[in-house]
Design a protein that fits this description.
GO molecular function: dipeptidase activity; manganese ion binding; metalloaminopeptidase activity
Pfam family, one: AMP_N
Helix content: 25-40%
Keywords: Dipeptidase, Hydrolase, Metal-binding, Metalloprotease, Protease
Largest sheet: 3 strands, parallel
Strand content: 5-15%
Protein name: Aminopeptidase P N-terminal domain-containing protein
InterPro entries: Aminopep_P_N, Creatin/AminoP/Spt16_N, X-Pro_dipept-like
Order of helices and strands: EEHEHHHEEHH
């Protein structure tokens, strides 16, 4: 198999599981199918999730080890953080292929892209984690106030999707159990 024909995947080290991006593609499809069937979801709604952000440790220039926001990672498989980048800077086409996405944009284009798409509603994630007592960090960007936003529909639907595991997700869990 040549490098060009290898499906997109990520691996966090030499002795870790190679996780295919198709796991996250399947998750996105499952979420969209569930939302299409859900009561109260307006036609033309667009899901908007907030990714994780790099944080610095206390009053230093040292970073806390980055962990992607869990719902964002479940949906897209994106590992990269937002603000700090070391190494080669890739173009949008690279990330489109890497994450098997239909479309990719820079974060500073969100308002303009969404305005062109003219969604009926933006579905943002806001819900309580009953274990930690913390709420999900709701997506925000300059200009979001120009859109109709619903932050109640998405959380129960995406949480329910995450309860029922796909065969690929079960494979990841089995690998973790063995490690």
């Amino acid at each position: 198999m040549t490098a060009a024909s290898v499906p997109s995947c990520y691996q966090l080290g030499t002795h870790t599981l190679s996780v295919p991006i198709s796991l996250h593609t399947t998750n996105r499809k499952r979420l969209c199918e569930r939302l299409k069937k859900a009561k109260g979801v307006p036609a033309g709604a667009i899901v908007l999730l907030q990714g994780g952000e790099q944080k610095q440790r206390d009053c230093t220039d040292a970073d806390v080890v980055f962990r992607q926001e869990s719902y964002f990672h479940w949906t897209f498989g994106v590992l990269e953080e937002y603000a700090i980048w070391m190494g080669k800077i890739h173009n949008l086409e690279h990330f489109k292929k890497k994450y098997d996405a239909d479309e990719i944009f820079f974060t500073d284009e969100i308002a303009e892209v969404l305005q062109k798409k003219s969604p009926s509603t933006l579905l943002t994630l806001r819900g309580l984690n009953t274990d930690s007592g913390q709420h999900c960090r709701e997506a925000a960007f300059d200009g979001i106030s120009k859109f109709s936003v619903d932050n109640k529909i998405l959380h129960p639907e995406i949480a329910e999707c995450r309860v029922f595991k796909t065969p690929q997700e079960l494979e990841v869990m089995r690998f973790c159990k063995q490690s």
